[in-house]
Specification:
The longest helix is centred in the middle third of the chain and has 27 residues. Among the domains are: 230 residues, no CATH class; 162 residues, no CATH class; 139 residues, no CATH class; 97 residues, no CATH class. It is of the alpha+beta class. The protein is elongated, with a radius of gyration of 41 Å. A hairpin with a 2-residue loop joins β17 and β18. A five-stranded mixed beta sheet has the order 19-18-17-20-21, sandwiched between helices. Strands 3-2-1-4 form a four-stranded mixed beta sheet. The C terminus is likely disordered. 37% of the residues are buried.
């Protein structure tokens, strides 16, 4: 072995030779245009010319230490930029010290899809305004380079920041609080110097890393060495073990989308941690080899050095199964297909290297051929591979997060980052009901299925199971075939196929519609809708910012009646239903609910896709309840839903109906935030009532109008807005009244229907009550109502916080021949000369907890405490005794006194008084008509 050189000049020269060799190898793998572009990057940063890409203004920092563009670079610039003329200028300052590329550039892992991370190392005295100008210049150069197929990422670096407490974001591999020294370690073993000062680290002997500072101080004894001609990022010593843990956790994060590279880096961090405190870094092995005189790139390749370190750790610790997974990932990451012919001499070098590895692993030709066909794998192969990788990621996360939680060093991964990592792993790997499992995240790495078949069966427990087959014969009961996968419902099946890139626009679907309910046309159109609304890979991507924030939904799709054709039986019989009742939720004379299936599909900003499916008569109500609940929680951030549905016989009528209902409900909530809200719509022969109070939304099925009115008659706990869907038949009068209702006002609606008059009350809080009585002269009824309303509004005004009057409006409801309800405001004509019987009720709590009633008739008191059960009979006797001919027409109450609640309880409102009025009037009217009351009367008196 060659003795390690302590001559810094010789050490630098060797590093420069390796640096140039890596540049040459990188150039051989790029197109001429791409190589030209990379070569002029230093010149673009050194010059500040309006003719060049990236120019911002004359004040933008430029000029690189120890750099001048050579004639070849000038010629390349002139070729790329038409009309450019180079004019040399002498720089007075050099704000840019060095420019490096780091990462896979020039290594065995570099591919046509690789990007370039460029570090621009600046003078630490550069002010914030100049940094902003530089960043703007970088952005412009990045955009220009992208047009030529080069993905550049510039990062501003200062030589002292790796040993400071500043959080780093210096590359696509950076991971916030998790890495600092490890990012520097990766830089030292992978960086390529493009221009400017080389790293001082190059010339510090590998065996003297621990005495880095002392060696730096001794450089003055070398006449050819000047410290100002180097950039000093510092040594690689005393790396905290927490950084290995944190970096390993971040590789798990990256491994979800890029597993082949991340598995290797994750195991490397595990190896580093296992060696601590005597960790031997790959970068130090790299430096030692260069300083020994080794310049063959295959022995210095940073990716190979990483792999060999990780592989050796697993083998030495007896983890052979994990080592096989590591080799599997490494081979696929390098992408050198050994069973195929080499297209170039450059590639032959890589092939020979990979062949030597494969031979040492004793892989079979079959295994090699299988891996070389990775881009053509079917989904079952991908599922098997993904399960192995996910098990590795999950077990590593558990182990590393426990280690991180037990350490308190300031260089450990932060709690915020650990929280983000946990969410990412949970979102990507955790299974839960309705969540679509993602086994394949790359459309380029799978062979789509040309034919897919859907069948429907029952499990041993009797539940319905949907089966997916990738063989045409699967639809035949005579040829049982193992399904590709089983699903709870068909929408999850379709989503799984699309999100895992199993289907394309050319995939042919097979389905026995008489068994599954799914026709080919419906399947095709539903898939087109899903593909358009859930673009890949966007729908599965997320960011650390999104993961750090509360869960947010990006999209909501609502699919109506998938696999349910409501008129299929009629169509098979040749029967076509027609009716004036066209509401799909209550269709025809039989009031049939034709919407029996609703699927809600959510995509989250965490990269998840989940389903919520409801079936049966309650499907719409339960789906709407969930939708409105989430809307009330997320507010404006909640997405507008996209609807889809298909029917061979009714087109999209059901979908349009559901969309209108959801839209109306959303608008109702948006317009009345802070209030209690009720929404009524028809379903089948009955109704659905949704009630929103705060973030809580309840849904209730009501059999008929009577049940609905009974529900409406329960006083709400606060001001309430009630809306009735326009298509809800049989309750048009209720719809009209709720539409006219205004907060703070009392509205009374009178509907004279032959011998019966219906009184409807909408009070100042939106509460509702109805009462029926016998029909007689309208103005007399209005006068009685006026006396009662005048008395109770006076009480409410006095008890109210602002002593405000409560407006009262009277309407007569008219029912036209066309079925439409019309309101007609009625003018009250008060006749002061006409006598009115005064019946005043006082309700007070008794010691037993029930209400004690006192009824005052023309000033005389009748008390339940004295009369007990005969109270109403005695009052009825007095009422009849004062009527001509003992007429038993209904009794009307003129006033009610109720005890005011304590301050913390709900306030009284007019509906409470009206309910007492109704109850007592009905009981008095009943008592008047009892035979024993009439028999007990004396001779009537004239009044």
């Amino acid at each position: 072995m060659t003795e390690i050189s302590t001559d810094p000049v010789e050490a630098e020269q060797r590093f420069r030779e390796v640096n140039q060799a890596r540049l040459d190898r990188l150039g051989a793998s790029l197109s001429l245009r791409q190589w030209d572009l990379l070569c002029v990057i230093p010149a673009l940063l050194h010059l500040n010319n309006p003719e060049l890409p990236g120019f911002v203004d004359e004040q933008t920092p430029h000029s690189i230490r120890n750099y001048q563009p050579d004639p070849t670079t000038i010629a390349t610039l002139s070729k790329l930029i038409a009309g450019f003329r180079y004019q040399p200028k002498t720089a007075l300052q050099y704000p840019i010290l060095s420019i490096f590329m780091m990462g896979s550039s020039g290594s065995i892992a570099f591919s046509a899809d690789s990007d370039f991370d460029v570090w621009v190392c600046i003078n630490p005295e550069t002010v914030a305004a100049d940094r902003q100008l530089l960043q703007l210049k970088f952005t412009k150069i990045e955009a220009w380079a992208y047009k030529f197929g080069i993905e550049l990422h510039f990062f501003i670096v200062e030589q002292g920041q790796f040993h400071s407490n500043e959080e780093l974001t210096l590359s696509g591999e950076s991971s916030g609080s998790a890495q600092r020294f490890l990012l520097l370690e990766e830089f030292y073993r992978s960086a390529i110097l493009l221009a400017g000062l080389p790293p001082l680290w190059w010339i510090v002997p590998a065996e003297q890393e621990a005495s880095y500072e002392a060696f730096s101080d001794s450089l003055s004894r070398w006449p050819a060495i000047k410290a100002e001609n180097y950039i000093d990022f510092g040594p690689l010593i005393d790396i905290p073990v927490e950084e290995f843990t944190g970096a390993g956790l971040w590789q798990i994060f990256k491994g979800i989308d890029s597993p082949y590279k991340s598995v290797m880096k994750m195991i490397l961090m595990e190896a580093y941690s296992a060696e601590h405190p005597d960790t031997r870094l790959v970068s130090l092995d790299y430096k030692q080899k260069v300083q020994q005189g080794i310049t063959e790139l295959e022995r210095l390749d940073p990716y190979l050095l990483m792999f060999e370190k990780a592989d050796a750790y697993l083998i030495e610790s007896g983890q052979n199964e994990r080592a096989e997974l590591l080799r599997h990932c490494f081979y696929l990451k390098i992408g050198e297909h050994l069973t195929l012919s080499a297209p170039s001499t450059r590639q032959q070098l890589r092939r020979n290297l990979m062949r030597s590895y494969v031979d040492s692993w004793e892989w079979t030709p079959h295994k090699l051929q299988t891996l070389d066909q990775r881009h053509r794998w079917r989904i079952d192969q991908i599922i098997a591979e993904t399960n192995k990788i996910n098990r590795e990621l999950s077990s590593s996360y558990t182990r590393l997060s426990q280690q991180a939680a037990g350490r308190s060093s300031s260089t450990a991964i932060s709690n915020k980052d650990l929280h983000v990592l946990g969410r990412r792993l949970y979102a990507a790997l955790e299974r839960k009901p309705g969540k679509i499992e993602i086994a394949n995240r790359s459309r380029e790495m799978i062979s789509p299925e040309p034919v897919l078949a859907i069948s429907r069966a029952r499990s041993k427990k009797g539940t319905v199971v949907w089966l997916l087959h990738n063989q045409a014969g699967a639809t035949s009961s005579n040829q049982p075939v193992m399904p590709l996968k089983r699903f709870v419902n068909p929408i999850e099946l379709l989503l799984w196929c699309w999100l895992n890139s199993i289907t394309t626009g050319n995939t042919r679907w097979l389905s026995n519609q008489s068994v599954t309910g799914l026709g080919i046309k419906e399947l095709t159109l539903t898939n087109r809708f899903i593909e358009a609304q859930l673009p890949l890979p966007e729908v599965l991507t997320t960011s650390t910012d999104e993961l750090a924030a509360p869960l947010r939904f990006r999209r909501l799709l609502i699919i109506v009646n998938l696999g349910h054709e409501p008129f299929a039986d009629n169509a098979r019989k040749g029967v076509h239903l027609a009716s004036s009742r066209s509401d799909p939720l209550s269709y025809g004379d039989s009031k049939l609910n034709t919407v029996k299936k609703i699927d809600l599909i959510y995509t989250s900003a965490w990269g998840e896709v989940t389903c919520y499916s409801r079936f049966g008569d309650k499907a719409v109500g339960e789906a709407l309840q969930r939708y409105l609940t989430e809307l009330s929680v997320h507010g404006d951030k909640y997405p507008e839903p996209k609807f889809f549905g298909f029917s061979e016989h009714s087109g999209s009528l059901a979908t349009q109906r559901v969309e209108t209902l959801f839209s109306s409900a959303r608008q109702l909530l948006n317009d009345n935030s802070g209030h209690l809200v009720k929404l009524v719509y028809a379903t089948g022969p009955g109704f659905v009532l949704l009630e929103k109070s705060g973030a809580d939304i309840q849904v209730q099925q009501l059999k008929n109008r009577r049940a609905l009115v009974e529900k409406f008659s329960q006083p709400p706990p606060g001001p309430t807005v009630t809306r009735i869907d326009p298509l809800a038949g049989g309750i048009g009068d209720l719809a009209l009244m709720t539409e006219l209702n205004q907060f703070g006002a009392i509205q009374l609606f009178i509907h004279i229907n032959g011998r019966v008059t219906h009184l409807h009350v909408m009070d100042e809080w939106g509460a509702y009550m109805t009462q029926s009585t016998e029909t007689y002269e309208l103005q007399s009824l209005l006068q009685h109502l006026h006396l009662f309303v005048d008395n109770i509004t006076r009480k409410l005004r006095i008890a109210g916080p602002d002593n405000r009057d409560i407006p009262v409006t009277y309407y007569q409801l008219l029912h036209g021949n066309n079925g439409e309800w019309q309101p007609r405001e009625v003018e009250l004509k008060v006749d002061g000369k006409k006598p009115v019987t005064d019946i005043h009720v006082l309700a007070t709590p008794s010691s037993s907890g029930s209400q004690a009633l006192s009824i005052f008739f023309n000033g005389e008191e009748f008390s339940s405490l004295k009369l007990g059960g005969s109270l109403y009979e005695q009052v009825a006797l007095q009422v009849l005794s004062h009527r001509k001919n003992r007429e038993n027409y209904p009794v009307f109450i003129t006033d009610v006194e109720l005890e005011q609640p304590v301050a913390s309880a709900a306030s009284l409102q007019s509906i409470h008084y009206f309910k007492y009025k109704k109850s007592i009037e009905e009981r008095l009217t009943t008592a008047i008509r009892e035979p024993q009351v009439n028999e007990a009367l004396p001779q009537p008196l004239e009044i």
